[in-house]
Amino acid sequence: MFVDFLYLLRKNGLNVSLTEWMTLMEGLKKGLHGSSFSGFYELCRCLLVKSEADFDNFDRTFLAYFKDVPFQQEVSQELLDWLDRPDVLTDYAAWDEEQALKNLGFSEEDIEKMLRERMQEQTEEHNGGSYWVGTHGMSTFGNSGNSPNGIRVGGESMHHRAFRVAGERKYRDFRRDNTLDTRQFQVALRRLRQYSGLVDLPPTEFDVDNTIQDTANHGGLLKVRYKRPRENTVKVLLLMDSGGSMDYYAQMCSALFQAVSKSGHFKDLQVFYFHNCVYGRLYRDPYLRSANSVPTQWVLDNLSAEYKVIFVGDAQMAPYELRGGYYGGGQEDGPKCGMDWLLRFKGKYKNTVWLNPSHRPNWGQWWCQTYDEISRVFPMFPLTVEGLEESMKKLLSR
User: H/E element holding 322?
Assistant: First the structure.
């Protein structure tokens, strides 16, 4: 079954083994594709693609082979027509903090399930609400709304908070072709080498400049000079925002992470992740798994003040996430909100910068507030090669 598809995948550089192919056949036999073409696509991608870097190649190959198969649209055209009229509603819904907290409690699987249910139930246009698929409301489905998470249906991307776009067949580009950006970031990071110190060891390193000078001073008679070796003394703590609106900047942050990880300019590198703002726990992987986390206070207690701290995030969130006790410290006498934690980092680490992949938002009144507040606490630089170079100069300042 579909043997030509297997050969086409291999021809296009996807290393699909016979074992993986037979597993696909077994999955089809068991009905794991849900008897739908979209389900078949998802099953193929899950079983045959070994790396996210190959998603684009797989998509091109899949569409080339099955180009004549009609695609069953996830969202009805009638619903899309309702949602693609951004100016039809003039009385926009106000921010609802209680609904926002409720939405944040839904997992991606919960939201996916609810969207399927709504599309079966919904028979007319809805806007400005919190339940149906619509626009300008607090619902987790639709577009141009205020929910801090959800699925975008129709419309244009505005706040970059949706974790996926319904009906969109274009997947995120994970190809490993950002070598140039990574290389440029590595060059910018080299500025930190200026902070390396001379260690208290015997002079064993050849000193070119002083050898030339002494030789010239002695009429050309060679005078070899040595100097104490220089040791890398730079310690870096990298704290990266993960998930939500940061997914939009995944490739840029990937280039930065690769540059930092591959850099040999640091005596020690510690990397932790957070979501939106630093709270009571930091995570060792971008999936923010609790089992792989540490208390934030542990990081403050165990990483000395000599570390240079680099925050990476868009600094955009609902105000209560920064100031309102959202995921606080869990201690009666400890930090009560995200800003309290940020101020603790500022108080301990004198050399701290914030790299931002996003421009200051010019929409809404909430996300620009948190952007401005954080930029007043830490020197903020754009996540560009030039911005990284400027931030390295700031980290080197006394």
Answer: helix 319-323
CA atoms of 181 and 310, how far apart (whole Å): 18
20 vs 14: CA distance, rounded Å: 12
Residues 6+ apart with CB under 8 A from 66: 37
251 contacts 383 by C-beta, under 8 angstroms:
no
For residues 356 and 380, the answer to whether their CB atoms sit within 8 Å is yes
Supply the Cα-derived Rg of the chain in whole angstroms: 26
Question: Which stretches of 30-136 are DSSP H helices?
Answer: 37-48, 55-65, 77-83, 97-104, 108-121
**Exposed, middle or buried by CB within 10 Å (0-12, 13-18, 19+), for 260?**
buried
Model pTM score: 0.55
Containing 152, the helix (H) or strand (E) segment is strand 151-152
pLDDT, tens digit, 9 for 90 and up, residues 42-84: 899 889 988 766 777 888 888 888 877 655 556 767 777 777 7
Cβ(134)–Cβ(128) below 8 Å: yes
Calculate the CA dihedral of residues 61, 63, 64, 68 and round it to 10 degrees. Answer: 150
CA separation for the pair 59, 215 (Å, rounded): 66
Q: How far apart are the first and last CA of the chain?
A: 68
The reported pLDDT for the residue numbered 175 is 43
Handedness of CA 175, 178, 179, 182 (dihedral sign): negative
DSSP codes, 108-121: HHHHHHHHHHHHHH
Query: Residue 25: phi, psi to the nearest 5?
Result: -60, -40
- CA nearest to 261, candidates 351, 185, 177: 185
Alpha-carbon distance of 398 to 281, in angstroms, equals 30
Given a contact cutoff of 8 angstroms between Cβ atoms, the answer to whether 150 and 108 are in contact is: no
How far is Cα of residue 214 from the mean position of the Cα atoms in its chain?
A: 53
Distance CA 247, CA 245 (A): 5
